[in-house]
C-alpha cells in the first residue's frame, strides 16, 4: 500500500464509525462473508473487527491529528462481499485507504466518495460499472486499483481529474476507443496499466509527457500505427514497458536514452525492418539483474552486430518467430546472456531448419532438426508451409467431393478462403468450417499452425487426433462438437499453463465417465460436454478447473450428487447439468458462487435433486435459475435472490417439484420476476405479487394472479394467452393452485372398461347414428372389423381413421387409454376436441385434426410419443402455442391455414427432432426465424404470411446437405438479398416469389441441383425472375414458361404483372395440390 502522511481536522461526523460499519455489513451480505469476525458479533472494539485498521495501528506520522481509536482503513479483499456499498460509508471521518477487491458480487457505489479523504482505493474484480463521483478525490487519491471491472465504454473522463494519482491500474476493464491526450494531466503517475482492454488507434504523444513513469503497460489492446513520433527519451525513469499483443507497425524504437530498463515486451505485433544499431545503447548493468527484452512474433529481419555493445548486460533477448536469416557471430560469445554460454549461437536463436518452443535452445528444449523453415528462431516445425497445411486438411477430409463450401486450392491466397482468417502478417489465426461436409481424419499438422487461435470443426463426420495438440502454441478455442472424435488420452500432453481456454465436445459419444484428461486442462474457461452419454458421477477433480466461466454437462446420464468441489470454481458464470440422473441436496458451496449468472439443474430423471429450495441469497449476479422437474420440498424462501438487481429481468423455474405453502410477499421487491411454480402444492399467493405488471414477462399486468398460478379448482397451470384462461374443473379438485389438470393434479383416472367399451363410448358421444360410414360399429363382429379401426396381431386398437365421417359432439378423452393406439385421424369433423388426458396415450404417434374447429392446443405438449401433428384449417389464433415445444419426438408439424400471428418463436430451436414444418396461410409477422438449431429440418413452408426483414444468413445452417431441402417463403414481405450462405444446401428447392427481394447472393446461380435442376438450365432465372420481369411461378420452370418483361415488377420473383392481384390461378391450384399431398403423406 502507498499512502502519505495526512493531517485531518474533522469537526463533525455524519454518524459514529460503528453505525457506518454496521450499515456496510448489512448492505453487502455480511452474514455470508467468509470472515466476518467482530462484525457479526458487533464487538465493542472496532479495531478487532476483521479488515478494520485503526489509527493506533499506523505510524504516528501518517495519522497526525486523528484519534487513535478512529477507523482509517478497510481491507476486505476476497471476502465474498456482495450487494452495493452504501454512500454513507464514505462519511467515515478519517478513512484513508479501502481495499474491497476480488469480491465479484460487490458494486462499489462512489456516490458521496468526495466526503472521504482517501489516498488509496482498490476495487479490482468487483461488479462496479461506473466511476461517477470519483473525481471528488482529486486532491488526495494517489493510488487507484480498478482492474477487471465491467466498466465498458470510453476512458472515463472523471479519472483524468485525479491529478494526484501516482498509481493507476485499469486492466481488463472493457474500456474502448482511443487513449485520451488529456492523460498528460496525470503528471504524477509512476505506474500506468491499461492492458487487456479494447483500446484502438495510435498511442498519443501525451504518454511521453508522463516523465515520472516507471511502468507503462498497454499490452493486449488493438493499438495500431508506428511509434516513430513518440519520444521515449523523455521517459528517463521507465523500467517496465509492455506493448505486446497489439497491432503496432514500423520500426521498433531505439530506447537509446533509457538506463534502467528491466523489461521491454514488444512481442506479438507487426514491427518490421532492422533492430536499431543504437538499441538500448545507454543501458547499464544494475547489480547483475536480468533485463528481459522480448521482440518475438514480429516481422523483424535484421539483427545488428552492434547488439554486442550490450554484452555487459544479463540480457534475456527473445527474438523467436521473426524473419531473421543471419545472426552476427560476434554475439555468440556474450556469456552474460542466458543460454549463450552453454549453447552459443543457438542460445540466441535456433538455426534455420531447426526449432524449439522458445525459438532458442534451453536446458529443457534444445533446437531440434526440422528440415524446413528459412528463418532463424522457429518455434514449431512446419513440415509444410501454412498453405500446405490447409491444403492437406481440405484433401484429407474429402474437400472436392463433400465440402459444402469449397476452398479453391489454385488460389494460393488462403487468407481469402471461406472460413480462414489471418493476422496482419498473413498467419492463419482462425479456421471456421462447421457443418461443412468434412469427412475422414483431420491431419495432425493442423496443430502446427503457429498462430492458430480458434479452430471450429464441429458437426462434421471427422475424427480429430490430439497427438500433436501440444504443438498448438496459440490455440485458445477448439470446437469438435458432434464429430466422430473419441480418443482424448493425448490431451495429457497439453501444458497446464498453455493457451487452450474454450473446449467444445458436445454430442461426442464418450459413453463413459468425464475424461480425466479434460479435467487436467486448468486453463479452460469454457467446457461444453452436453449430450456425450457421460455416466458415473461428476469427478471431484472438476474443482481443479479454477478458471472455468462456463460448464455445460446437460443431456448425459450422470448420477450421484453434485460434488462440493463445484464451489471452487469461483469464476463460474454459467453451469448446466440438466437432464441427467442426479440426486441429493445441493452443496452449500454452489449457493455462494459470486459470479454465477445462470444455473440449470432441471429435469433430472428418476428421483432428482431434493431438499429445500435454496435462496441463493449471496449470489448477486444470478439472473436465471432452472430447478424444475425435481423433488425439492418446502416453501419458496422469502430471501430468494436477496442480493440480485431488483430491476433486472430474473427467471426462476421451479415447476413440477413438491413445493408447498404461500408465495411470499417479500418477492414483491422484484419488478420483473418470472417465477414458474405450477405443478406443485402451493395453496396461496400474497396479493402484492399479483399487482406487479411486469412479472411473468408482462402477463401479470394482463391476467393478475392467474398469470402466476391458476386458482384452486381450475386447470391449466397458469394463464399465458388471452384465449386460454384457467379452465374450471367439473370434478372435485381440491385447494391447490397451479394444477395442470383437474382432480388431484394427475391425469384423469383410468377408464375401467374394455377397448370395445371405449369405442362404444366414442360412437355414442360423437353421434354415431349419423356418421357417414358406421359399418359394423356396435355389431358382434370383432372391433378390428369396425369401419376405421385398425388393430395389431394381438387384437389391440392401433389406429382410428374416421376423417370426413360427420362426427359431432365431444371427442372422449378415454380414447387415450387405448394402450396400443398409435394414430388418430379425424379430420373434417365438427367435434369438440380436448387434449386432457393425452398423457395416457403412451404410444400415440400421429394426430390429424384438420378442419375440426379446434381453437386451442392446450395440453398437446403432454403427448409423450407424438411424431406427427396436423391441425390445418382450424381456428387457432394468437402466438404459436409454446406447448408444442414439449413434444420432443415431433417430426412433422402442420399448422397451416389458421390465424396464428406474431413472430415465429425462438423456442422452436428446442424441437430438435422436427423434420417438416408447415405454417403457410397464417398471419405470422416480424423477422424470419433462421431454424439454425434444427439439424433434421428438411421441409419449411412459411408462404402467405406477413414476414418482414431480410432472409438471415444463418437460415438452415445446420441442415443436412445430403438431403433435399424444401424452403418456401413466397408471398411475404421479405427484402434484400438471398444470402449466399444457402450454397451450403446443394439440393435446395427454394421459393421466394412475391416478396421484395432485390438481389441473389454470389455463387447461387450456379447451384445446378437447385429447384429440380432448373437453376442448371436457367441460371438466376431458375431462382427468381429478375426485376422488371414475371412468370406464373416467380421463376422460370420450363422453356415455355420464361420470365417475361413486366414494367410493374419492382422486385425479383413477381408472379403476375398486375400488382393488384394477390395470387394467380396457378398459385391457388398449387396450394390445393400441396394440401392434398401433405394430408395423404401423413395418414398413409
UniProtKB/TrEMBL annotation:
<keyword id="KW-0732">Signal</keyword>
<dbReference type="InterPro" id="IPR013210">
    <property type="entry name" value="LRR_N_plant-typ"/>
</dbReference>
<keyword id="KW-0433">Leucine-rich repeat</keyword>
<feature type="domain" description="Leucine-rich repeat-containing N-terminal plant-type">
    <location>
        <begin position="407"/>
        <end position="423"/>
    </location>
</feature>
<dbReference type="InterPro" id="IPR003591">
    <property type="entry name" value="Leu-rich_rpt_typical-subtyp"/>
</dbReference>
<protein>
    <recommendedName>
        <fullName>Leucine-rich repeat-containing N-terminal plant-type domain-containing protein</fullName>
    </recommendedName>
</protein>
<keyword id="KW-0677">Repeat</keyword>
<feature type="signal peptide">
    <location>
        <begin position="1"/>
        <end position="15"/>
    </location>
</feature>
<dbReference type="InterPro" id="IPR032675">
    <property type="entry name" value="LRR_dom_sf"/>
</dbReference>
<feature type="domain" description="Leucine-rich repeat-containing N-terminal plant-type">
    <location>
        <begin position="777"/>
        <end position="792"/>
    </location>
</feature>
<feature type="domain" description="Leucine-rich repeat-containing N-terminal plant-type">
    <location>
        <begin position="38"/>
        <end position="54"/>
    </location>
</feature>
<dbReference type="Pfam" id="PF00560">
    <property type="entry name" value="LRR_1"/>
</dbReference>
<dbReference type="Pfam" id="PF08263">
    <property type="entry name" value="LRRNT_2"/>
</dbReference>
<dbReference type="InterPro" id="IPR001611">
    <property type="entry name" value="Leu-rich_rpt"/>
</dbReference>
<dbReference type="InterPro" id="IPR050994">
    <property type="entry name" value="At_inactive_RLKs"/>
</dbReference>
